[in-house]
Structure prediction request, 146 residues.
Amino acid sequence: MAEQTSGTIDIEASAEEVMSVLTDFGAYPKWAQGIRKTEVRKKDSLGRGKEVYMEASSKGVGAKYTLSYRYKAKNGGMTWTSKDCSGAVKSITGGYELKPTGSTTKVTYRTTIELAIPVVGFIKRQAEKQIINSALGGLKKEVERR
Prediction:
């Protein structure tokens, strides 16, 4: 059974700057731990990735999937659902919610990943921590680096 993983972090940047990093899918392999390859397959009317193919691997377990993205108005974040998955993942849903708070942006990350392989509780919890660290910690470092 899939469970939601979530976390929140404050980033010293505007919501627009955070969205700029989140929509730069080609750079994900540089800062998002576990993402090995990305390819934007379809773009929306604003030129942002609408369907993005990704390859991920961690600790010898790999997955390939295409995510369909929807964007919130006014740099409010984005959500995704998986179209095609193979390897260790059956399905993925999730999103980033961005809320400006003065000179920072509060970023909340949520995702639900349904695995295609059985995973013991301890390993699953470690993987969830890695996902949160990459999704929020990696994002913060990349946004503030730029």
